[in-house]
Amino acid sequence: MTSQLNGSVLKAFKILDLFAAGKIELTAQETADALGINMITAHRFLHTLVHAGALRVTSRGVFRLGYMFADLGHRVMRDGNLAGLLQPILDQLAQATGEACMATEFDRDMAVCIAKALPDRPLYVDIRIGSKLDAFCTAHGKLWLAHMIPADQDRYFAKADLTRMTDHTLTDLTALKSELAQIRKAGFATNNGEREHDIYAIAVPITTLHGTMVSAFSVFGASPALLDQKRGTLLNALTQATENAQRALHGKD
User: Fold this and answer.
1) Of 112, 120, 126, 114, which Cα lies nearest the Cα of 92?
2) Distance, C-alpha 45 to centroid of its chain
3) CA 202 to CA 218: how far, in whole Å?
4) How many CB atoms within 10 Å of residue 204?
5) C-alpha neighbours within 13 Å on the C-beta side of residue 15
6) How far apart are CA 244 and CA 239, in angstroms?
7) 83-98 per-position pLDDT tens digit
8) pTM here?
9) Of 224, 220, 210, 218, whose CA–CA distance to 239 is shortest?
């Protein structure tokens, strides 16, 4: 299988990968150093990528990502395949945990259910595909907010109606932002009956290789034991599920 791989293509993608982690610009010298190639080869790769539209030249010897990636990124997120890709993993998660599970996207300041899986038992909490979840008081919503840049968080809260829905709903902005910072650090979010009485959930993000959130998985139900007694077990199952999802997203074995 390895003999079928094209080394030049792999090297080109390694160059594009250098733009991760907030790096905006790249020079031929940085490329040569990072990939262990000479300057002539680095220039050839960079200018080939410019010709293909993957990079653009902003000043002499300085390169940035091309705008084609904005279009490609939009196509990836809107091609309708994400739910189908995640569904088998959700089914396994529901079987492993014995609880209802779902996946979301974020649209118009709401977390939206795009896929679900139900446990094999007579009583369970259900949700409809397409259901919208308030961001500030649900596990999925808080997870999406926690992964926003501060400017986008501020934009959300400037418009949000932080209505108290249950006795557990957090509506103080300072406290909410503090919780979001903790969620980002911990890597998971919970819902302790904050949107509806007696609905509990725990959610984890599905990210790209460089940490950009593209979806999320959760386990949810009507028992407080989800968060009290089963948290560790459920987090382990959710973590395994997100690892499987990331392998499926990136085509890695």
Assistant:
1) 120
2) 30
3) 5
4) 23
5) 30
6) 9
7) 888 999 999 999 999 9
8) 0.74
9) 218
